[in-house]
Amino acid sequence: MGQAPPAFSHASRGRLTAYDLDRFPTQTLFDRLGRAVCKAGCLPRKELYESWELARRTRRLFRGGRVVDLCGGHGLLAHIMLLLDNSSLSALVVDTEVPPSAQQVHEALIDAWPRLAGRVTFVAAPMDSVALGEDDVVVSCHACGALTDQVLSLATAARARVAVLPCCHDADTCDTGPLTGWVDAALAVDAVRALRLERQGYRVWTQVIPAAITLKNRLLIGAPRP
Ligand SMILES: C[S@@+](CC[C@H](N)C(=O)[O-])C[C@H]1O[C@@H](n2cnc3c(N)ncnc32)[C@H](O)[C@@H]1O
Fold first, then answer.
1. Looking at the chain, which terminus has fewer C-beta neighbours within 10 angstroms, N or C?
2. Which of 42, 94, 96 to mutate for ligand 1's pocket (most ligand atoms within 8 Å of CB)?
């Protein structure tokens, strides 16, 4: 009996390349995106799935606004946010070290969607050097540890809408509140974040993206209450 082919794990850090094009055969937006990312040839597979899941859940709640992708890396998330809602005119990707291959991803996406040209700006700087406003939709995928807290505090200071998918929870630098006797430290940190956001006058949504993509899958979304 032959062996079954290995499953195509959505959590893999392996790069999507031209060899994977056939895995995205249809004309759905997601498959077209997958093919563009394969053509760029430099993105870890999980980044495609994480960014997609984060963006589509955020867009179900938040339309329009400037997109600001903090700790944005390649900036795929910012591009997807524009693709899912063309009424957002522009996006800013902020990262202290924009990866050189971000340009490849950007060009592959513009090749597939020329309407994105001139609408995504990369800023190689710390996130607190960027001025935010209340019309912004701030997103951040896997800003490690306390960086997620910084994203949240910058967004709330500006009264901007915000969506974060935290990772690398660190009980030494993040606030666990009094909860670690009941739940693990990572959950305690995220629970404290959600409650803090609510105390700051935000409506809060707590969601998850599929654990098959990442175990760091808690999605925290907030919008200022009117
Ligand atoms: C784990 S990566 C996540 C990248 C991307 N969002 C993703 O999902 O693949 C964290 C990123 O935060 C960036 N970073 C670290 N400190 C930062 C800061 N103070 N301001 C902006 N970006 C920062 C790093 O350069 C890195 O690209």
1. N
2. 96
